[in-house]
Amino acid sequence: MKNRHGSLVTTVALAGALAMVVQGAWGQQRPGAAPTAVDAGLRAAVIDGAIDQMRRAYIFEEVAEKMAKAIRARDARNEYDRISAPQEFANVLTKHLQDVSRDKHLRIVFNPEGLPQRSGPTPDERARALSDERRRNFGFERVERLDGNVGYIELRGFSGTPDARGTAVAAMNLVADTDALIFDLRRNGGGSPSMIGILSSYLFTEIVHLNDFYVREQLAA
Hints:
Blueprint: E1 7-11, E2 21-22, H1 40-57, H2 61-76, H3 86-101, E3 107-111, H4 123-135, E4 140-146, E5 150-155, H5 164-174, E6 180-184, H6 193-200
Helix pairs in contact: 1-2, 2-3
């Protein structure tokens, strides 16, 4: 079941996936209608909610405060008053937050259909996602042996599905006896630490600490 009205969602990564649904201002629209305008009440609710979530859960507390001050200052100068389109408001807020944080994972997302009221994907959605991953070869765009015995892997993403392991093993086997190896990540959108771990296991002969995950506060979607 989905919310009947549109939502503005704050997604803050680095501290885990956080989602905030800001509704209420859409309540007078007919059920199922996509929201068409941002009024002063919804604008304030989105800004207040985003700042509250960042202060509670963003991984760098001092950066959260800088973002909060920057957004409050812009709001006090009435910079957002002219914006009535929900998508434009989400885009502008995202840019202003990223201008301060330099964090491309942090964004405001507008979803005209609202957030699904369920805890995870359905079996059909998982099957479609796996099919899409396979069509993209689990992110392995090109795997070659270049002149000079140089291995080259263009990787568009780090797939987290267990089915990607075989593709990763095949790619690394192809470049196993090269004298040098290039990982081309210029168009890589990120992804799962599990794939990073698989690929890294070919590069180190000793146990290496790769990363940590720290969550200040887990917020409910």
